[in-house]
Amino acid sequence: MKLLFAFITAFVFFFQSNMEALRNSYAKANLSNANTEAFINLADDQSGNDAVTNGYKAAADIMRAKIAKKDRKAMVKTGATALEGIIKSNPNNIELRLIRLSVQENIPKIVGYRGSIKDDKAFLINNYSKQNGALKSYVKKFAMQSKSFTEAEKATLK
């Protein structure tokens, strides 16, 4: 029994460490092409198959277009389709909504992938208080630098 508990604890700790690294890399990905590449590589190396990990992988697919020379439209379409499918299967996952909101905020308007900004922002605000401390911190950090949130909305995230 102790061995099983130790294994489960180690697995959870390892997964959380990978998730924190993925979150931190994603938060810095738009700062430079080098950071974008680092995030893409980290996302590609993730072995997890849960919805959030797959959401970050879909975001990485979209971000490939930022540094690619060819087939940029196809990369965005592939990643956006995957992200929409993941969110459709997990509509109440706040982290997936944050990923989509950040992608849509940062993608050029000409691409046209911006239809969920208002819904995702409202979802983040309405569900913020129900999250654990780590997710609250992550959402708040995102919102404070976000172009979509007003000062009043930012103040509601305590």
Explain the overall architecture.
This protein has 158 residues and is mainly α. The protein has one domain (18-156). The chain contains 8 helices and no strands. The chain has helices at residues 2-28, 33-45, 51-67, 72-89, 94-106, 117-127, 133-145, 151-156. The longest helix is centred in the first third of the chain and has 27 residues, at 2-28. It is globular, with a radius of gyration of 16 Å. Residues 2-16 have low confidence and may be disordered.
State the separation between the terminal residues, measured CA to CA: 40 Å
Strand content: under 5%
Tally of structural domains = 1
The secondary structure category is mainly alpha
Helices and strands, in N-to-C order? HHHHHHHH
Radius of gyration: 16 Å
Features:
8 helices, 0% strand, single chain, 158 residues, mainly alpha
Topology at a glance:
Blueprint: H1 2-28, H2 33-45, H3 51-67, H4 72-89, H5 94-106, H6 117-127, H7 133-145, H8 151-156
Task: Describe the structure in brief.
The protein has 158 residues and is an all-alpha fold. The protein is built from eight helices and no strands.
